[in-house]
Fold this sequence. Notes:
The chain is mainly alpha-helical. The chain contains twelve helices and no strands. The chain has helices at residues 11-27, 29-42, 47-64, 73-90, 102-121, 127-136, 144-163, 165-173, 175-180, 185-226, 230-255, 259-284. Helix 1 packs antiparallel against helix 11 (230-255), helix 2 crosses helix 10 and helix 10 crosses helix 11.
Amino acid sequence: MSIDVPDAMTWAQIMSVMMWPLVACLVLPGVLVYYGLHIIRREVIFVDLALAQVATLGTCVCLYLGHEADDPHNYFWSLGFTLAGALLFTFTRPSKHARVPQEALIGIIYVVAAAAGILLLSKSPHGKEELQRTLVGDLLTVTPPQIGRTAALYAVIGVVHFIFRKQFIKLSFDHDHAAKGGWSVHFWDFLFYALFGLIVTSFVQVGGVLMVFSYLIVPAACATFLVNSLLVRLLVGWCVATLASIVGLYASFELDVPTGAAVVCALGGALLLTGIAAPLLRRCR
């Protein structure tokens, strides 16, 4: 299927529909890429997917209790569930001799939260639509105030990470020495996951579970394939997220397909291209 811009279609018309989704996709994923580098290093790849699903479960409970989809109560129910999940992940970080890896627990939490959400929404007259919205979000309806609030929250979280960057980076990239150094590992781990929970909860309201997972893992994975320095990985990850967002939004507009799903597929395509290019680039060095 080719993607051609009709003669009558102008970039101004495209931007009239896609401007705020584009702003959201350019501004908000930055902190997700940074967190993705930590998540990949910690080897808890599916923790973001599980936390996003737990956040969604909180929304499902709120809807089941009779609140509307745009009710502010949804955010606080979702945040409460996410913080509970963050606490659980903090105290289940495995030791070297753990019989059951933490990935198993993460998978179980994801599956149970997803199943519980389906059960709750099965009683709602708009359950099918709400279920789809939790997966791929509704990026086209994002509003400037929503982007502003989320960006401000992410900026605060970014400042916290900058101030305590030594602790967070040490725990993710050199956890064994951090534990032996007398640090309160559980405290810093909980703070890491709690801030992560705030990010996930906010972005799930905009883009849904699949976009949260994709923005966290795909750009960070691409950067990890290509470069070694943490700072350069961050810059490469941001570039991958930006380019894939633009491609996904344009494809969504041109093909008239769901925006969130199109961006997720564009990110998947970016990872595929990176997987092909990375070995070739290493041979050329």
